[in-house]
Inverse folding.
């Protein structure tokens, strides 16, 4: 464009003004219907968020209102009692739950990571059986927990393993329940390690296993750990499968992993207290719920923190 | 391309090969690295085809790569230069369905022979990739990775220092060896990858477009480095930057895309391979001339 005098002729100025007016009109004009629809839609979405939050909030408020009177250190140290609700506590259930999740962790970490490594690093994806395994693991994660209870009863408590109604059988059952979750999380973490890292390592003369051990696994540990924590917190809250594999509702002594005189777990004990009509037991159940909620929220928060803090950004 | 067009090329190569054969009584280690016509050969390619799942990607490449030379592979996109480079350290083995036909001799030994372990081959034939790929570890651990997996743990600090000096990176990182390598700039990361490669004391370094992700200053540093490194290593570099090939290489191979009669399939073909100076000033093949003068590609 020339900047000579003709650029400022009245005709040109008129044309520029006209173009500007058109632009302004296009930018500002918004149909009223659009404004209303936008507002309604945003409102509906906000309502969805509020309903989800309200559920959690109601649970927290109710649990605190009913259970705060029963919250004390006795809760952690005293065994349950049917006769003296004011003295009753959760000690055997807490010990049982801790032993259960320890068993779950021991089982789930090597098997889960091993399965994930096989599927991601070794399995030939063009083979139909590997695709079948993959689809099945996805499906297993969605199987209702009571089914795992039946499986545990048939194969672990009785059947081939025949362990009897012991805590270790409960731990194995819960481990089977959360294993798909761990495998899926570990696979995602392993897949997130870029191929360029594997190639860089192999190009230096590392073997496949050296590459996995020194590059792929260390880089995916934060993701795997997050998955394991989330899986364990799920196992911690499960009740249904435990009822089938021998978690008795009333145990007054600290359970041992292989003792066959019964064991209990937090959710099972809460269930037991909540069934009783007396006000004091109701409060005790609510206090148990508070403890569970605090522990689960802490575990999940830790998992999220761990992921954000240590996850490798490529 | 009609087959007769390649004939002058292969004829020249066979003359060289004959000269080489005449000197075969002299064992390679007693030959001088840069002496006249009789050059020690690191790689000898004889009719190499590369196929991916049965589809030809590179066809009929025959060439010799000399010791302590920088050999450049140039050509337009899709001409198979990177594919060819990945044959030299058997990285193609990692791609399912990849197949290498013909013969690649490494110091006279068939690289694809039945007893050859690709892992062992890669210890001798290192590789630097297109995009810098440092490990998510400290600078020190990046360089120490190779010696550690090879079990060379004595004098590791010295090895790391020498490798970083060799890659012209030591002065920039000597005070922060424990820092994560991801904190380095792109050019520094690429020199770290070179340091990582030379820390295992390979015989050959393959470079796959090592500067394509870098700015001109970093590129210049890496080019200077290559000229220093060839004192010690044989280097094969793939580049789509012709000036780079002209600046750093001793010999240049020009590859081109070739189509079949129906134009359904395409593959890479070696058009001309000669002294870099000759390729850029007086190429024998018209297509090379068109490419290096910027008329095509």
């Amino acid at each position: 464009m020339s900047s000579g005098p003709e650029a400022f002729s009245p005709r040109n100025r008129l044309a520029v003004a006209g173009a500007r007016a058109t632009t302004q009109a296009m930018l500002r004009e918004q149909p009223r219907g659009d404004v209303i629809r936008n507002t309604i839609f945003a409102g509906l979405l906000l309502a969805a968020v509020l309903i989800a939050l309200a559920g959690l909030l109601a649970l927290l408020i109710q649990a605190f209102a009913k259970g705060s009177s029963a919250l004390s250190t006795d809760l952690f140290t005293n065994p349950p009692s049917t006769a003296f609700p004011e003295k009753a506590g959760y000690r055997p259930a807490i010990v049982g739950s801790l032993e259960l999740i320890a068993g779950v962790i021991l089982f789930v970490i090597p098997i889960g990571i091993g399965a994930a490594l096989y599927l991601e690093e070794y399995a030939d994806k063009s083979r139909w059986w590997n695709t079948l395994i993959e689809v099945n693991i996805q499906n297993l994660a969605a199987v209702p927990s009571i089914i795992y209870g039946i499986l545990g009863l048939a194969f672990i408590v009785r059947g081939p393993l025949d362990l009897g109604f012991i805590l270790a059988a409960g731990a194995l059952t819960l481990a089977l329940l959360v294993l798909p979750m761990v495998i899926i999380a570990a696979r995602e973490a392993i897949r997130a390690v870029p191929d360029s890292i594997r190639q860089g390592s192999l190009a230096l003369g590392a073997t496949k296993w050296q590459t996995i051990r020194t590059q792929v696994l260390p880089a995916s540990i934060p993701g795997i750990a997050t998955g394991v924590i989330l899986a364990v917190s799920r196992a911690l809250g499960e009740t249904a499968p435990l009822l089938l594999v021998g978690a008795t509702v009333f145990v007054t002594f600290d359970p041992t992993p292989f003792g066959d005189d019964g064991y209990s777990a937090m959710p099972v004990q809460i269930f037991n207290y909540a069934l009783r009509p007396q006000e004091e037991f109701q409060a005790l159940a609510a206090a148990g719920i508070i403890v569970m909620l605090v522990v689960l929220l802490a575990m999940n928060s830790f998992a999220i923190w761990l992921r954000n803090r240590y996850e490798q950004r490529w | 391309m009609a087959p007769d067009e390649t004939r002058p090329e292969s004829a020249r190569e066979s003359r060289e090969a004959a000269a080489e054969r005449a000197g075969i009584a002299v064992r390679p280690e007693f030959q001088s690295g840069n002496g006249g016509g009789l050059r020690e050969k690191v790689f000898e390619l004889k009719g190499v085809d590369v196929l991916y799942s049965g589809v030809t990607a590179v066809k009929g490449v025959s060439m010799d790569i000399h010791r302590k030379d920088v050999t450049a592979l140039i050509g337009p996109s899709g001409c198979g230069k990177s594919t060819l480079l990945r044959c030299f350290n058997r990285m193609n083995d990692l791609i399912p369905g990849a197949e290498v036909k013909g013969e690649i001799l490494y110091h006279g030994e068939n690289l694809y022979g039945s007893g050859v372990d690709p892992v062992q081959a890669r210890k001798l034939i290192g590789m630097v990739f297109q995009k810098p790929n440092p490990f998510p570890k400290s600078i020190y651990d990046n360089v120490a990775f190779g010696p550690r997996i090879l079990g060379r743990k004595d004098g590791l600090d010295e090895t790391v220092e020498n490798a970083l000096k060799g890659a012209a990176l030591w002065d920039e990182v000597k005070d922060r060896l424990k820092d994560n390598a991801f904190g380095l700039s792109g050019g520094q990361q690429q020199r770290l990858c070179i340091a990582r490669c030379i820390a295992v004391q390979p015989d050959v370094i393959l470079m796959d477009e090592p500067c394509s992700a870098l700015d001109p200053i970093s590129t210049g540093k890496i080019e200077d480095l290559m000229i220093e490194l060839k004192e010690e290593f044989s280097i094969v570099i793939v580049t789509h930057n012709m000036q780079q090939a002209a600046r750093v290489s001793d010999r240049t191979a020009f590859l081109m895309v070739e189509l079949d009669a129906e134009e359904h399939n395409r593959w890479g073909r070696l058009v001309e391979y000669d002294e870099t100076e000759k390729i850029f000033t007086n190429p024998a093949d018209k297509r090379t001339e068109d490419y290096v003068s910027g008329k095509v590609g």
User: Anything to note?
Assistant: Residues 153 and 249 of chain B are 34 Å apart (CA to CA). Residues 3-292 of chain B form a domain with the Rossmann fold fold (CATH 3.40.50.300). The radius of gyration of chain B is 19 Å.
